[in-house]
Amino acid sequence: MDLKLDAAAVQALIRDGLVAAGRGGLVVEEVRVNYARICLPFEDGMLRPGRVISGPTLFTAADSAMYALVLAHLGPALMAVTSDMNLRFLAKARPGDVIGEAIFLKLGRRLAVMEARLSSRAEPDRIVAHATGSYALPIASDHA
Amino acid sequence: MDLKLDAAAVQALIRDGLVAAGRGGLVVEEVRVNYARICLPFEDGMLRPGRVISGPTLFTAADSAMYALVLAHLGPALMAVTSDMNLRFLAKARPGDVIGEAIFLKLGRRLAVMEARLSSRAEPDRIVAHATGSYALPIASDHA
Amino acid sequence: MDLKLDAAAVQALIRDGLVAAGRGGLVVEEVRVNYARICLPFEDGMLRPGRVISGPTLFTAADSAMYALVLAHLGPALMAVTSDMNLRFLAKARPGDVIGEAIFLKLGRRLAVMEARLSSRAEPDRIVAHATGSYALPIASDHA
Amino acid sequence: MDLKLDAAAVQALIRDGLVAAGRGGLVVEEVRVNYARICLPFEDGMLRPGRVISGPTLFTAADSAMYALVLAHLGPALMAVTSDMNLRFLAKARPGDVIGEAIFLKLGRRLAVMEARLSSRAEPDRIVAHATGSYALPIASDHA
């Protein structure tokens, strides 16, 4: 397993592509073999009642971290699409930049299965949500 | 099983509470015993590359429909929190108002388990994503 | 969507293949377009403490019903493999034959996504567990 | 977080309770703070076509490892019940003793959320399946 793109290249691809992510200024902080970390800079729209980070924001962080991991390892595979996502909410996430870290559970030819841990920079050592998800990967024979 | 709140009351509670949902003008279209339907009016920020409805938007629709269902049956149980969400993306969702319909799989004392089907009004008969999720419910004994 | 195999043919394929299922005498009760129902005849080994049907038994029923659905629609695609399974346990299942009913959420070229409802014949109208799962499908180009 | 029971005590509780597990001779190999490892000794009934470990066997290993983790930390909480299980199958598992290792993602008052990794002793460094699951915990107020 090795990398096809660095963090800056992954970030450029994601920002170009995603209206929503581009608006929030998603940052790809680090990519290395079998690891990607993204940051969603804090903004008030991320909060739900009780001033905790909302579920959709945590979903976005998980999905973005997984997508960054796939892009870094496969190159500009913009056709990779989320097939499913399983999110578990573990603790209240205090207002702060939202961090998503993803690793591969499996990188197959047709499916990438990943795990992500989500946290807030307001309390960096606390995992506030855990996700596993799979992406369907474009395959050579699909384009033959 | 019977209802504690009607659609207008549920909508008022959700809009008051959720910055993000309030901004988008979430509509609670219908609540009845064991059913809730919400609508997220279309806006460009919902799209991802290829002009399809994004994953976070579908997550929001699933979560909002489930929350509306819980509110309608339990009253203003604002302490109900999403415990987990499993989302399966089935088809590309064309630009349009996003519809979420939720039913109970189980309404227990401590946990509500729900199922949601998501679609776009651009293609109303096509389920574009399916979700199951659980909410932890506040219980009397917790506050005793 | 139409059928490639009837219930008897599906049952023969599953029984031939699965040591565990064969032992328990799994019955494919019905297959039709977008529907399969299997029965695991009751035996004491299915019980866990409290005399309720065990989790592994319900998993087996969900997986068998989904596999029967795939076989009925795709023919003897013995290479189809479970990619993931999400099971929610809703109620205690009393001792009795275990019934699994599966439908498609999506039948794609590469992935079949299905939903299954599990019940016990001791209390036929009560859904005791709900499952969604996906199967990776063998594709022509894989064998080219 | 500390332990209420050691591996031998956990094993005795599980074997007493579970007909199916008792039959297969489940071994609780290790429990320590935030970790439990169980072993299902290999037997032919675990195999599915292609001579790989079956899905129900991997489900059993995940569920048993999580249950052992809960028992070790909470004592003989035999009323703890699996609420949901999400299993991802990553690789073919060759015939061999099946190992399940579980950790907590969250140990709350009402819900324990856990992660498990499954492998076969035939190929110990290969994770063949990954699971996350939640258990509903009995609470004092339920028995008041």
UniProtKB/TrEMBL annotation, chains A, B, C, D:
UniProt keyword annotations, A-Z: Hydrolase
One GO molecular function term of this record is: acyl-CoA hydrolase activity
Give the signal peptide, or none.
none
Q: Which residues form the Thioesterase domain?
A: 52-120
Q: Which InterPro entries match?
A: HotDog_dom_sf (IPR029069), PAAI_dom (IPR003736), Thioestr_dom (IPR006683)
Q: Which CDD domains would you find in this protein's record?
A: PaaI_thioesterase (cd03443)
What name does the UniProt record give this protein? PaaI family thioesterase
- Organism the protein comes from: Solimonas marina
> Lineage in the entry?
Bacteria, Pseudomonadati, Pseudomonadota, Gammaproteobacteria, Nevskiales
